[in-house]
Amino acid sequence: MTVKSSISLSAEQHAFARAQVRQGRFPSVSAVVQHGLELLREKSEGEMADRAALKALLEERAGGAFVDVATMRSRLEDMTRARRRTDRNAD
């Protein structure tokens, strides 16, 4: 089902839409606008899905075990020493 709606476009937007029609990419200016709205809807839904996934990940991490600063520093120092040994052995 389609619904008729009156919209206003800037002169630049209208010229772009008309060019799309002239190039044969769309059958009408309405089709150009419909396609643009569909892309915007898809982008919006994708962003909502991304935010939901990020929220779920943060909630999962918040419920997990945390490492104190001293332990993290010790782990980083161990990794740095191991990397240096590997680099020296490669030479």
Give a written overview of the molecule:
There is one protein chain. The chain has 91 residues and is an all-alpha fold. The protein is built from three helices and no strands. The longest helix is centred in the middle third of the chain and has 34 residues, at 29-62. It is elongated.
Quick overview:
The chain has helices at about 10-20, 30-60, 70-90. The protein is mainly α and about 90 residues long.
Question: Which tags fit this structure?
Answer:
mainly alpha; 91 residues; single chain
What's the overall geometry? Answer: elongated
By DSSP, the count of extended strands is 0
Instruction: Give a short account of the largest sheet.
Output: none
Overall pLDDT level: 93
Portion of residues within helices: over 70%
Give the percentage of residues in beta strands: under 5%
The H/E string reads HHH
The figure for the number of domains is 1
Uncertain runs with pLDDT below 50, 5 residues or more? Answer: none
**First CA to last CA: what distance?**
71 Å
What is the SS-derived class?
mainly alpha
Given the structure, what is the number of helices? 3
Radius of gyration: 27 Å
